Amino acid sequence: MDSINTPIVKLRDVRFTYDGGATWALDGVSLDIRRGERICLTGPNGSGKTTLSRVIAGLTAPDEGHVTLLGNAVFDDAGAHAQAYRAARRGIGAVFQNPEDQIVTTVTEDDVAFGPENLAVAHDEIGKRIAGSLDAVDMGDSRASDPTRMSGGQQQRVAIAGMLAMNSEVLVLDEPTAMLDPSGRADIMRVLDELQERGTTVILVTHHEDELDHADLVIRLESGHIVGDGPAGESLRLPIRSVGLPKRVLEPRGETIIDVKDLSYRHAGAEHDVFDHLSFSIGKGETVALMGHNGAGKTTLARLLCALTKPKSGSIAIDGIAVSATKRNGTVKTLSRRNRAKLRRTVGYVMQHPERQLFAETVAEDVAYGPSNQGLEASEAADRAMQAMRLLHIEHLRDRSPFDLSGGQQRLVAIAGVIACEPKVLVLDEPTAGLDEEAIARVHGLIHELKSRGVTMLVISHSQEEVNEIADRTIILGESTAVPSTGSAAMGTESSTGQDRMDDGTRDAVERRTWLERLDPRVGMLSALALMFSAFAIGSFWQLLLAVILIGAVVVTGRIDVGRLIASVHVFLAMFVFCGLLNVFFVRTGNVVTNIGPIPITDDGMRIAVLYACRFAVVIVIGAIFLDSTTPTAMTDAFESLLSPFARLGMHAQETALVMSLALRFLPTLGMEAKSVIDAQAARGGGIETGSFANRVKALAAIVVPVFAGAIRHADNLSLALDARCYEEGMARTHWRVMRMRRGDVIACCVVIAYLVVLTALGALM
């Protein structure tokens, strides 16, 4: 048989269920995919596209059927074959719908290198693949950036680069352009064209009609069944929506309801403003689109308008409420509790990630959360919730858990929960991303309905077609200004200086690495541990002074941002310092200075309390300096190297090191998850920021379930990400970051040893 025509992916009668067979996400799916083909999977939300893509990628085993991937019979009547799956995955790359969980490190080039490292690619070749893959997705100047702090679109580019670097025979992409701007979408489609020309087989899940153009085969799914397949023709294309003419309104009509003047914002630790002296206004009843490249600050602006983030300077007024204002001394005045509650009744906010906006046990309870906080009776709040669900045709989901829904269904529920509050102003951050055509039509219909009711809307979107359909006018975030636009032609005036500035900053960061960042991570880790443990031996103020001098010298010579350092540990610092100061109540030796009730306070107690508090502070600060100057990847490599002698005794050194790295990577993500739920509650008038103490405690308790659900979701997605990047227990890996001792490492070791000797000598003299 001609090998060219032999299927490299073969599925026969595949079935898959998430609920023990009550329903089937895939039901009797059979298909063949041949080398070099581009296959597009289409269909409505919940049709089984993502599930099918994961089966093809070898990341999910079906419940029934036969699956052969790259010549490996991975699943048959005998069940799943683990070794066959491992062999197949080495030739299959996968890009997930949500890129955040696919990123495993906090340095872009390290993340791109992770897959090739697992494939044992040579060091020099890894370097070439990093450069080529990042250039292909236009992220070449962001090698030193932290991808976890990027916009969703930028993260998607990094995730795609990570897969490109693995040189896979088959590439499976689940809606890779859903969060990208038009330029980013064009870049990815160009990359896919080039890969296909080189013989790579491409499987693309998409809701975009124009992405079907170069497909060899389009497969349409509905309710887990293939309902049509064939060449990209009209019969299999997605339904075409009617598109209205672009509205040409340059200035706000009628009375102004949103007024932004000289607004500036900068992320913590960043060198440049996201935007600087941004000014615009929106009239009552207008629907305004907000556009701009990935990373231009669209989501940041939405959060500023909703008082979920504080600007550096400038003013925001919404319906007469001063959301922020700069005082004469340069500080920014925040909302009073009363005005904050008023703002929550006025402004509704649909977030970019709907799964982080849901927190109740059922859909009906979640949608009714906002109306309940407005003081409505339970029956009236339930009626409001039902009306909102009916507007979006999701009333059949009312008794379902929001955590069990598909991404598209979650987005519709999140929108319903906000419109149930009946706000005067509605901010929607990419409300149709990841939705099928029918759901998009529902959202557009809702926007038109709300407009007829006089609701003012600011809609963040990357789709010019969508903007033409719904918006009166467009604001484009460009070079630190809001540029008014009248239609699609104006996109050509968009400035990419925000990305350029970020890239310049990361390029400079590579060149300006401090001596701390250049240390061998093994030296850094052992030195930090030695200094932290020795801090517990500090028993005199002379020893404490020595420790402070050393820390001060490290901070100055290592160019540590003290403000950012303290901000990163202030909670732990306060907690441990408080514990240290408690000694003042328990030490009875020395002279009594005063009494607090029946408790005598002695001079020894005060001295020891201050000493202990400072000692705890030294430990926390040293640890923070190490974490600030060493990436999780470097820590993983160092930890693995230091544990390697114990591997001979049966310890899983490599796996232990990876777990530590992933914990460091995802703990901030879970913190963001909790913050998002808190913001979602606050945006719908929850008691977490404006209620009584009891209500705030109750609201905080309510975040436990969604954060726990988020942790499980991240863990599941992370396990898939490791499989997709070919990580296996006990495997032989190469390393992009090669550890070696240099002169600076020797000097650092000598300084630490000298410090420990002097510290011990001072202790002996006391």
TrEMBL record:
Keywords: ATP-binding, Cell membrane, Hydrolase, Membrane, Nucleotide-binding, Translocase, Transmembrane, Transmembrane helix, Transport. It is a multi-pass membrane protein. Residues 9-248, 258-504 form the ABC transporter domain. Belongs to the ABC transporter superfamily. Its EC number is 3.6.3.17. It is an enzyme of class 3 (hydrolase). It comes from the Bacteria. The chain crosses the membrane at residues 528-553, 565-586, 606-627, 746-765. It is found in: Cell membrane; Membrane. Its main location: membrane. SMART domains: AAA. This is ABC transporter, ATP-binding protein. The keyword RNA-binding does not apply. GO terms for molecular function: ATP binding; ATP hydrolysis activity; ATPase-coupled transmembrane transporter activity. It comes from Bifidobacterium ruminantium. It holds the Pfam family ABC_tran. Residues 484-499 have a biased composition (Polar residues). GO terms for cellular component: ATP-binding cassette (ABC) transporter complex. Residues 484-505 are annotated as: Disordered.
